[in-house]
Amino acid sequence: MTPKEYFMTAKEYLTERARMTESCSIGCHVCNLSALKTGFNGSCSDLENVDPDNAIAIVSEWSKAHPRKSYKDDFLEKFPNAKIEESDYPICRVRVYGGSCNSVRCTDCWNEPMEQEETK
After folding, report:
1. Inter-axis angle of helices 10-21 and 52-65, nearest 10
2. What is residue 69's DSSP assignment?
3. Where would a tag sit more exposed on the chain, N or C end, judged by fewer CB atoms within 10 A?
4. For residue range 70-117, what is the model confidence (pLDDT) as tens digits?
5. How many distinct helices (H) and strands (E) make up the chain?
6. SS3 of 13, please?
7. Which 3 state secondary structure label does DSSP give 76?
């Protein structure tokens, strides 16, 4: 995998690493950045310093395999019989979940990933 295939901004990397490790509360024995999983002889922060491309690739691959839940996904989990067409949403997402919407199309707003706190 080349660096361009897994490019992430620093903010995306830190956000997804925190989500992957549950802010380092999952335990090193199950963490994808741990020496047990990577074979790297050192801590995850050592891996990030010595081989950042590998650390970014690990987090990026995990992130792609574990996409964040969208508002639409959450709504349909709670209301499985709701009929939602791509162009015909029954209600504005903001009226259900709060927050704000700057989208022109409801599709964009409903397909945004939920904030991490809201999905727990």
Report:
1. 60
2. P
3. C
4. 998 898 899 888 877 666 777 788 888 888 888 777 888 888 888 754
5. 8, 0
6. helix
7. helix
